[in-house]
Amino acid sequence: MTTLSFDASADPILQRRGLIQDVAAASLKRRKVYSRIAVGLCWAALVIAIVPLVAVVAYVVVKGLPAWSVDFFTKVTVPEGIPGGGVWNAIVGTVEIAAIATAVTVPVGLLCGLFLAESDGRIAAAIRFMADVMTGVPSITIGIFGYIAIVRNFGGYSGLAGAFAIGIIMLPVIMRAGETAIRGVPGSLSEAGLALGARRATIARRVVLPAALPGIITGVLLAVARGLGETAPLLLTIFGNQYLQWNPTKPMEALPILIYNYSSQPYADLIQVAWGAALLLMVIVLVLSVGSRVLAARMQRERR
Amino acid sequence: MPEPGRGAKRGGRFALSNGVYRGLLAAVVAIFVAVVVWYIVSIIAQARPAFSTLGFSWIIQETWNPNKSQFGLLPFILGTVETTAIALVLAVPIGLGTALALAYLVPHRFRAALSSAVELLAAVPSVVFGLWGLVVLAPLFREHVEPFLTSALGWTGLFNGPNEGVGLLLAGVILFIMILPTMVAISRDVLAVVPNEQVEGAMALGATRWQVLRKVVVPGSRTGLLGAFTLATGRALGETVAVALVIGNSPYIAHSVKSAAATLPSLIVNNFGEATGTELSALFGAGLVLLVIGIAVNAAARMLVRSSARSGGGSDAVASAASVAVA
Fold first, then answer.
1. Out of A186, A288, B12, B98, which residue is the most buried by the measure of CB atoms under 10 Å away?
2. Rounded Cα–Cα distance for residues B140 and A3 (Å)
3. Residue A51: exposed, middle, or buried by beta-carbon count in 10 A (0-12, 13-18, 19+)?
């Protein structure tokens, strides 16, 4: 090699190659630096996103747990300054309102979901779009609707008016989740039913809905979780009630309303109750969300 | 093998004939449509007295003073837009960065866990964020964040006035934290739909990690990302209780991001209890303005997310992921 007397610097092609190599190396170096910085910024964004979210959850747990006691779950709310008391009236209201809203919206939502899953026309597309938009409209306007439609016409603030508003928030979620779950059922299953001469209603009830059950349960539980956390519509429909009220035709208390009202109070004991209620509400909502996933995954696995 | 007749019989009372069955489904869907129409029409009808008493211009008048029968909505429209803008300025870069990290940078075994953690956080009730913002963040902002921002950025003129803690800035920050999970969950799904061949192709050409993300992944899912951001915008615009707790509720136009202000939803929820007559109708009018904005933003978002799902080849997966993530 060394014996070869060849002057590389004189060859224009090699000169050019060297130049290109230099430029490429510099470019790669520069691009790598840029890439490092940008990827680092993405990681930083991930950290910035996670820190406050974790902080919220951690704060609620740390501040809320000391508020929990047997009384907290069994006694009704007391005014500030008086020791003891709990949030039993708010638990009753929240659970009852969610139960009524769920009982009404699940059948309606699933039938709508069946309709959407079986139709591909323009009307179905329009309804699908309507449901999608409804999942995002400001919830306070649904509260206004509940006030106008129920509170004004049917004897004032009531748990039923709240259930109506919450149901309207849940319905489009159940419709779309139901449709997605039903569309996921292989067409061959319902075709087999048709080939056996079964009617469409029978196929829907005995083949399609059971097969779509995991997805449906997930959707319903997510809708319930969302409905439970809504505050604004309830403020305009159930009003709040410091006493225990089982009758849904009367004003009721609910956990979100209690948190909202207490957190803007200047009294430490009420804010303490608000933290406890926030923890309870968060636990219920997260259990529903996690539970829906776990349940769906397990049912899916058993099917196989 | 069961005979057709027997199969139908075993369906019991649900064995409706096909015609009746289709009719039943159509009837239930008609109920849904009727409720939606009723919802929109009833708000318009209840807002009408305000429009007929005050004329159309009341929406953009500056003064809200029920004692003098002045119900201008401008301060609240501005407050809504400003809080949403603050939230978006923070949420767009951070949400996009987080979504990119979750979709392409985080090691595979942590990806699923982190992603579902983010989605679960989207389910935390908004009133909980409001409580946390008021009790924890407001003092922090008053004592540390606002003095720091005033000394660092005071020259912009945006940070005049006393440090109160509650106000536009805190409301915007709370909204940012609240819309982030929604935004990240949808953006991540949209980003992940970009075909692997394109990503690998770019890598084979010698693109760095960032170049792949910047030149292939982000452009390939631009429409879907825009849809995700728009959906998050809709959520920020309509958020009521969390904002009402931390914005300070002042019916005047804010002159600094530290000032107390109010938004359309917080106006409604704070004044609803005592309002009667024209004031009540004006509150319904505020609801109508909010509803129109909300429908417009959400309709735009849905179209964007859906068209990206179609072009991205992810079919319905993205659209349905979007609807579930929003829930």
1. B98
2. 76
3. exposed
Helices (H) and strands (E) in chain B, counts: 16, 2
Radius of gyration (C-alpha) of chain A in whole angstroms: 29
Taking the CA atoms of residue A95, residue A101, residue A107 and residue A113 in that order, the dihedral angle to the nearest 10 degrees is: -110
- For chain A, which residues make up each domain, given as ranges? 12-66, 70-303
Distance from CA of A5 to the nearest CA of B (A): 35
The DSSP element (H or E) to which B257 belongs, if any, is: none
Contact B4 A197 (CB under 8 A): yes
Q: How confident is the model at residue B1 (pLDDT cuts 50, 70, 90)?
A: very low
Residue B3's CB: how many other CB atoms inside 10 A? Answer: 10
Which value does ipTM take for this structure? 0.86
Chain A / chain B CB contacts < 8 angstroms = 307
Angle, CA A14 vertex, CA A9 and CA A19 arms, to 5°: 90
**Nearest partner of B227 among B117, B302, B115, judged by Cα:** B302
Cα separation of B29 and A111, whole Å?
A: 8
The answer to whether the Cβ–Cβ distance between A136 and B25 falls below 8 Å is: no
Of the listed ranges A84-88, A155-159, B138-142, B321-325, the least confidently predicted one is B321-325
Nearest to residue B146, comparing CAs of B171, B166, B163, B168?
Answer: B163
The span from the CA of A202 to the CA of B132, in Å, is 51
> Helix, strand or coil for residue B70?
strand
* Best CA proximity match to B130, nearest among B263, B220, B247, B282: B247
Q: In terms of CATH, what superfamily is A70-303?
A: MetI-like (1.10.3720.10)
pLDDT digits (tens, 9 = 90+) for A3-55: 555 666 678 888 888 899 999 899 889 999 999 999 999 999 999 988 888 89
> How far B67 CA lies from chain A's nearest CA (Å)?
23
Q: Which two tokens stand for residue A97?
A: 């309102």
